[in-house]
Amino acid sequence: MLLTLQGITKHFGKVKVLGPIDLELPKGTTTVIIGPSGSGKSTLLGCINLLELPTSGTIRVGERQLRFSQAEKPSAKAILDFRRQTGTVFQGNYLFPHMTALENVMIGPITARRLNRADAQARAVALLEQVGLGGFLDRYPYQLSGGQQQRVGIARAMSMEPQILLFDEPTSALDPELVGEVLEVMRALSRSGITLVVVTHELEFASRVADRVLFMDKGSILESGTPEAVFVHSRQERVRQFVGRLAPGIASSLVPTYSI
Amino acid sequence: MDPERLERIMEIISMSLWPLLKGTILYTIPISLLSYVLGLIFALGVALAGISANPYLRIPSRAYVWIIRCTPILVQLFIIFYGLPSVGLLLSPFASIVIALTISEAAYSSEIMRAAILSIPNGQWRAGYALGMSKSQNLIRIILPQSIRICIPSLGNQFITLFKTSSLAALVTLPDLFGAAKLIAASTFEPMLLYLIAGTYYLILCSALTIWQSRLERRFGAYQT
After folding, report:
1. How are strands ordered across the β-sheet holding A15-25?
2. What pTM was computed for the model?
3. What is the reported pLDDT for B218?
4. N or C: fewer beta carbons within 10 Å in chain A?
């Protein structure tokens, strides 16, 4: 088990938006989280990369474990250390506009890991080539298309050699024509054995790439299983309604049809 | 206008050109530059304190900006130059005007910087944190470089304003550009003439500064997105 969440809850003021969540993710798997807006998907992701601090619960990634409660909060240093285990790709990519693509991917290792410039650069070039942007190293974000920017974002997230890669609706803000190239990169990453957690509405992508699908609503995980189990065989009305509305043909595409 | 009058006017103009220029070179320009640079340095500190989560930094910073912005700089100057000696602190005229301008500049510029920093989208901070950067690393590498470009037009404006405000030096007995004009105006009984000449000097110099500022803006303009 690479990632374990136990009893994770998150409150904003008095309002509970998440939890309690208990989750275990094996290494090398791809987990896709789906669900309606406001269901807590992004908050859950935030609790894994600690951009949101859980109100209570325990989280373990690899060998590092942190406990949160009203009384006890981990030190800033522990949180920073933990954040370096995860890499995040955001919906709005949030690339640094004053740096080239190459510099965007180099900045993490140089500052947070104190790598020397030459090594960081070599690594960044390799990552950008891996996402298919080897010829765009010196472009600034504004000179790249949305899909290219997002691929730089993926390379940047990988620059810190994280144990888990998190994706927060990476294609939701993209032109439909550009979605494919980003999903392609994600599929290649999934195949190469990196552990991924993806929040997305692209149910077809989930059905083809995910090892496991989680359906979330109102801060809890309602259904968890293989894509087929969740999309086709779910017993919960809420799940079937969501899947039916978002991807009407998906149930039938997953069930093999035989012709005599 | 009779020829004698015209001749006298030409005579006064030619004899006042150099003293006014000397005042500019010896006082106006050094005072402006010194106050501006010192003011910017303090302004950055005040700005960062003003957005700090720590109330012991934030509250003094906000109080400082509030008081300075809500009192006239002339009053601040006179407190420093005429008021402080009565509590035992005697400052030279030059030191007084530089300190007063620095304090004032720091307050106004800190607001410009604070606004620029806060205008950077939250996503930029999050992306930095997601990479495992600390708050200060984020600030130095990601946020401030973007903020500086946003500040340039406003801070350029501040310098031009400061350059003109430095004329307050005349009120603490310094013969800067305005001070020299005042002295000569008194001795020749020609206030209109002298103040027009001083005004012309300011106009020429500030116009040059304005042109230089637009060049700077064009070179370092905010990023296209």
Report:
1. A15-25, A3-12, A56-61, A64-68
2. 0.85
3. 84
4. C
Instruction: Find the CB nearest B130 among A88, A92, A97.
Output: A88
In which region does residue A218 sit, left (phi positive, over 0), alpha (psi from -120 to 50) or beta (all else)? left
From chain B, the residues in CB contact with A76 under 8 A are 134
Contact B130 A76 (CB under 8 A): no
CA distance A97 to A149: 11
Give the start-end residues of each E strand in chain A.
Answer: 3-12, 15-25, 30-34, 56-61, 64-68, 86-89, 164-168, 195-199, 212-217, 220-225
pLDDT at res. B133: 92
Q: Which of B130, B137, B141 is nearest residue A51 as measured by Cβ atoms?
A: B130
For chains A and B, count residue pairs whose Cβ atoms are closer than 8 Å: 68
At B217 the pLDDT is 83
Q: How far is CA B84 from CA B77, B96, B125, B201, in A?
A: 10, 10, 44, 33
- What are the CA-CA distances from residue B57 to residues B42, B66, B105, B125, B186 (Å)? 14, 15, 19, 21, 49
CA distance B136 to chain A (A): 11
Tokens read off for B32 = 């402006």
- Exposure of B160 in the CB half-sphere (CA atoms within 13 A): 19
> What span, in angstroms and rounded, lies between the C-alpha atoms of A20 and A43?
12
Measure A244 CA to nearest chain B CA, in Å. Answer: 33
Please provide residue A225's backbone torsions phi and psi, each rounded to the nearest 5 degrees: 170, -170
Q: How far is CA B110 from CA A100, B125, B144, B177, B209, in A?
A: 29, 20, 13, 28, 21
How far is it, in rounded angstroms, from Cα B101 to Cα B35?
6
Whose tokens are 């015209």? That residue is B6
- Which residue's entry shows tokens 């293989």? A226
> Are the C-beta atoms of residues B191 and B185 closer than 8 Å to each other?
yes
Angle at A213 between CA A207 and CA A214, to 5 degrees: 145
pLDDT-flagged residues of chain A (< 50) = none
- Nearest-CA distance from A88 to chain B in Å? 6
**Is 70 exceeded by the pLDDT of residue B221?**
no
- Of A90, A97, A156, Cβ closest to residue B225: A97
Q: Whose structure tokens read 């992508």? A: A205
pLDDT digits 0-9 by tens, B72-96: 999 999 999 999 999 999 999 999 9
B161 Rama class: left (phi>0) / alpha (psi -120 to 50) / beta: alpha
